[in-house]
Specification:
globular; alpha+beta; 220 residues
Length: 220
């Protein structure tokens, strides 16, 4: 069976969580980076983009759009989505919370310079006062994973969010001992540890070149 193929920009954005998930599942994948408007328009002309947007992933004979749909399929296929419907509901709840925290960090590079400082303050406040306390409380009641006794997509999303926030505030976990233990536990799982090393498919924080390419391709 062919490898999954990811269509997105050469940067994090909404595709990064999908890269995390495939890495945790031990699945090798290919990527086609959108670098020109022509590439994007060809995908549109070919009918490859259901809602005329990326991420899009070719996998198991399907062209899947919508980040959550893609992630739910991969997670379910590779035993990263709980053992029953109740666990899946909890996984969705925690995963969506982590993704909500990541959204303003994805948007930040595209903001006008005058708005970036207030955005940074908002991100840190939300992490410290809303999201991290909720995850801290959840982890106290668990055995190292957010749901059940095995790794799930919720754990991956939370670790991704934690590392992103730490890039803007390296000491933000100082008041959250359970999150510190969680970060150590998940980041030392062999496949995750490998993904966090230089040279992996993990993308660096977005730079000006990435922002410019996205704007040129999508024309905004």
């Amino acid at each position: 069976m062919s490898k999954p193929k990811l269509y997105y920009f050469n940067g994090r954005g909404k595709m990064e969580s999908i890269r995390w998930l495939l890495a945790a599942a031990g699945i090798e994948f290919e990527e086609e980076y959108l670098e020109t408007r022509e590439q994007y328009e060809k995908l549109l002309k070919d009918g490859a983009l259901l809602y005329e947007q990326v991420p899009m992933v070719e996998i198991d004979g399907m062209k899947l759009a919508q980040t959550n749909a893609i992630m739910n399929y991969i997670a379910a296929k590779h035993n990263l989505y709980g053992k029953d419907i109740q666990e899946r509901a909890l996984i969705d709840m925690y995963a969506e919370g982590a993704r909500d925290l990541m959204v303003p960090m994805m948007h930040r590079p595209f903001l006008p310079s005058a708005e970036k400082e207030s955005n940074l303050t908002m991100i840190k406040n939300k992490a410290k006062n809303r999201y991290f306390p909720a995850f801290e409380k959840a982890l106290i009641q668990q055995s190292g994973f957010l749901v059940g006794n095995q790794l799930s997509v919720a754990d991956l999303n939370l670790l991704e969010a934690v590392l992103m926030v730490e890039e803007i505030d390296p000491h933000i976990l100082s008041e959250f001992p359970e999150l510190q233990k969680f970060k150590l536990k998940i980041s030392t799982i062999p496949r995750i540890q490998k993904f966090l090393q230089p040279g992996s498919p993990r993308k660096p924080p977005p730079d000006d070149q990435y922002v410019q390419i996205v704007k040129e391709v999508l024309r905004f």
